[in-house]
Design a protein that fits this description.
alpha/beta, two-stranded antiparallel sheet, 11 strands, binds S-adenosylmethionine
Length: about 425
């Protein structure tokens, strides 16, 4: 029997758990805690090992690493996701200090907030509150050390856990205080007042205070239950994080799917609020995200030349008779496959000779064409010296593509499959 002798659980979040929890926000396409726990039970990393997740999302893999008495390095290009992960590890946060920080009220009448809200999502009093809070946090984190968000995310000691929780609560609260609304697709938001007339009534401060309490309660429970470990997070493209070559022993991750979701739009209020604290370039972020709908410019077709299955998949997309197949869509998929190959090159470079880990992936369709993601990743990984084994496959009916009328017209019965694959360096 295999290592760990335990079976891999489904990565799909159960319906109840998929909805945003009252405390933490689940990332879109986040995998289930049961899966993350079972994956690490299978790998059996020795106590004190470091687990790496280069697409950490909301930090589900951190919870499993901590449960297994392991340390953790997470990377996410989205700084809000990076912060949510760090917040889940902030067990040293001090309740009195968090309350004091969040309780800060802006003093005096200021005609212009210190940093203006670039997207005009928040009321002036909320922007002023955020500026006051962020000013206090920046002072505590030390001006001389560069970007305050980086100081907080990369700290291993827990010294800034209270500041982490104060910041995470304020950003979480900013979502419901923003002038935005959602339509039928839950992943997209519209900027502007809700057409049904439900404009936000609660200010950021009140909500931040209540999120802060909820987060602190969860962390107090986890402090009692789980071992002390450290968690470092980098808000960067995976390849820009300072991970030494040949250092990764264990990894657990799920790269962005080809669902063409715009994560920047999904998190616009939180990212806008965060931009008042740390430099966040929304357009650059959108451009650099893997799976982005934005094109980065002309791309060589190296990934297709080196891989027959990628070449065949791209050829079928290019030859599809529907509009823009040979133009925009061909380039979109070429860019995605190029990013995927870039990720696997990086993983190969950073892996120790005995490295092992899990990837979670989802099939995709272009119109009625099934895009065989498992086989593509398997071939790309094998050609880089990894052994690949499928450990779990499950059909998934409720996916974002299934909501699109255009997609339903082309392939009404399509069922995507979610795959868990074990990757080992040979
Ligand atoms: C499928 S989600 C991961 C969900 C995660 N497993 C969880 O349970 O919450 C993929 C993540 O990859 C991030 N991402 C996209 N492009 C990236 C890049 N170039 N480098 C690092 N992270 C990136 C996205 O922001 C997103 O949070």
């Amino acid at each position: 029997m295999e290592k760990g002798a335990s079976s891999i659980r489904s990565p799909k979040r159960r319906n109840k758990a998929r909805k945003e929890g009252p405390v933490w926000e689940a990332a879109y396409a986040s995998f289930s805690e049961e899966f993350a726990y079972s994956a690490l039970e299978f790998l059996q990393p020795p106590i004190g090992s470091v687990i790496v997740d280069p697409f950490v999302g909301s930090g589900t893999s951190y919870l499993a690493a901590n449960h297994q008495n392991c340390n953790f390095i997470g990377i996410d290009i989205n700084p809000y996701s990076a912060l949510l992960t760090k917040a889940k590890s902030a067990v040293e946060a001090d309740r009195q200090l968090v309350r004091r920080l969040l309780g800060k009220v802006s003093q005096g009448r200021v005609s212009q907030p210190a940093t203006a809200d670039p997207n005009k999502l928040f009321r002036t009093k909320d922007v002023r509150y955020l500026n006051t809070l962020f000013g206090a946090l920046t002072r505590r984190l030390g001006r001389e050390s560069g970007d305050p968000l980086r100081v907080l995310l990369e700290d291993k000691s827990g010294a800034f856990d209270s500041e982490t929780i104060a910041l995470a609560s304020a950003l979480r609260a900013s979502k419901s205080a923003a002038r935005t609304h959602r339509r039928s697709n839950p992943a997209w938001i519209m900027v502007g007042p809700d057409p049904l007339g439900q404009s936000p009534t609660v200010g950021i401060q009140d909500q931040a205070l209540s999120y802060g309490e909820l987060m602190l309660n969860e962390l107090a429970q986890s402090r009692e239950r789980n071992p002390r470990t450290w968690c470092q997070v980098y808000a960067a493209d995976f390849s820009a994080a300072p991970i030494p070559d040949a250092s990764i022993a264990y990894f657990l991750t799920s790269p962005p799917y080809m669902s063409r979701l715009d994560y920047v739009v999904s998190y616009l209020p939180q990212l806008t609020a965060l931009s008042l604290f740390s430099r966040v370039d929304l357009e650059l972020l959108r451009m650099q995200m893997m799976g982005t709908t934005k094109m980065r410019g002309p791309l060589a077709e190296n990934v297709a030349h080196a891989n027959p299955l990628v070449a065949d998949t791209l050829r079928r997309i290019r030859n599809h008779p529907s509009q823009a197949s040979s133009g925009y869509y061909f380039r979109f998929y070429l860019q995605y496959f190029t990013d995927l190959a870039r990720f696997l090159d990086w993983l190969r470079l950073k892996s120790r000779p005995d490295a092992q880990g899990f990837l979670v992936l989802q099939d995709s369709f272009y119109k009625e064409l099934r895009l065989p993601m498992f086989e593509i990743v398997r071939d790309l990984a094998r050609s880089r010296g990894f052994a690949v084994e499928s450990k779990f496959v499950q059909p998934k009916r409720n996916h974002v593509g299934a909501m699109s009328p255009d997609q339903q017209r082309y392939a009404p019965d399509k069922t995507l499959r979610e795959h868990v694959i074990l990757i080992t360096l040979e």
